[in-house]
Structure formats: structure tokens, C-alpha cells
């Protein structure tokens, strides 16, 4: 059985000595140094993309915690006044939704961020119905939020794609 069999030095899968590339991870076990360097370089690149995506996802999570905290504090203040009691309930619910989205982003980054973004947009829309002038309130901050959401969405795609690619490559590492 040992005859004509080799082990991939990257993932330990046994490979035939005729195979240049490991069928499991693609490592050029029987290739030249240049091919091996290229393989390592590709992994480095993917790790960099993944790390960058993780940073952007973290920004989204921080934003969601901030939104949850603001809604919670305002909600408590509103709840204590009869006139704004029902608005207070709405704010508390929003705080819960934003916190829940953080856990959703952890499990499924893309759908979690999309859900949070749509919910946030709906909140902005509901404000427009009460008073259109309010839409321009803190417009710069709102644009920053949109930027964080949009970057998060494209990073979530990268995150899914590259963590999967790295997983297949590092299968047995
Ligand atoms: Zn391998």
C-alpha cells in the first residue's frame, strides 16, 4: 500500500507521486518551489481578505450595539412619561431587534446585516411619515451608518466566500 503513495505536506492527505497537486487542498506537493510559493501567497491573500472582512463586520456589530443602546435609553426615558409611553415601547422593541441582529450577524453575516439594514431603513421611513423634515436630522451621521451597512454587506459576501475557500484548503491543517 505504501507503494507509490505520498503524503501531502500541507493537509496530510495521501496522494499519488504522479500527482503534482494534492487533490484535497491543491498544494503542489510534487511541484517546484515557485508553485509552492504561489500556493502560500494565495493563502496569505485570502487570509488578508478574510481579516479585512472581519473588521468591517465588527464595525457593523458596533453600530448595531450603539443603535440598540440609544433606543434602549430613549425608550426608558419615554416610558416614564405618559405622553410618550407607546413611543417608549416602540424604542425598546427596536433596541431588542438591533441586539438580536448582532447575534444574527455572528451566525449568518449577510442575512443578519441585510435584516438590520432593512429594519433601520424602515425606522427612517416611519420618521418621514411623522415629519418629513426629520429625515434631514443628523443626515451626515445617517450617511455614515449607510456606509457602514453597505461595506458590511459586501464584506459579508467576502467573508462567506473566503472562509469557505480557506476551510477547504486548510481542511486537515
Ligand atoms: Zn493537501
Automatic annotation (TrEMBL):
Superkingdom as given in the UniProt entry: Bacteria
UniProt domain Zinc-ribbon: residue ranges: 8-28
Keywords, ordered alphabetically: Membrane, Transmembrane, Transmembrane helix
Record-linked Pfam families: Zn_Ribbon_1
InterPro entries for this protein: Zinc_ribbon_dom (IPR026870)
Signal peptide boundaries: none
Protein name per Swiss-Prot or TrEMBL: Zinc-ribbon domain-containing protein
Protein's UniProt keywords contain Zinc-finger: no
Transmembrane annotation, as ranges: 62-79, 85-105, 112-129, 135-153
Lineage: Bacteria, Pseudomonadati, Bacteroidota, Cytophagia, Cytophagales
Amino acid at each position: 500500500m505504501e507503494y507509490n503513495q505520498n503524503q501531502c505536506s500541507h493537509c496530510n492527505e495521501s496522494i499519488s507521486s504522479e500527482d503534482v497537486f494534492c487533490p484535497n487542498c491543491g498544494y503542489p506537493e510534487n511541484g517546484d518551489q515557485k508553485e509552492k510559493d504561489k500556493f502560500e501567497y494565495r493563502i496569505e491573500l485570502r487570509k488578508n481578505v478574510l481579516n479585512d472582512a472581519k473588521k468591517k463586520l465588527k464595525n457593523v456589530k458596533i453600530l448595531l450595539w450603539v443603535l440598540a443602546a440609544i433606543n434602549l435609553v430613549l425608550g426608558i426615558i419615554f416610558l416614564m412619561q405618559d405622553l410618550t409611553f407607546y413611543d417608549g415601547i416602540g424604542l425598546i422593541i427596536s433596541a431588542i431587534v438591533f441586539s438580536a441582529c448582532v447575534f444574527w450577524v455572528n451566525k449568518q453575516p449577510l442575512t443578519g446585516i441585510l435584516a438590520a439594514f432593512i429594519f433601520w431603513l424602515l425606522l427612517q421611513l416611519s420618521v418621514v411619515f411623522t415629519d418629513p423634515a426629520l429625515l434631514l436630522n443628523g443626515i451626515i451621521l445617517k450617511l455614515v451608518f449607510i456606509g457602514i451597512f453597505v461595506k458590511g454587506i459586501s464584506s459579508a459576501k467576502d467573508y462567506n466566500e473566503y472562509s469557505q475557500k480557506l476551510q477547504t484548503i486548510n481542511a486537515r491543517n
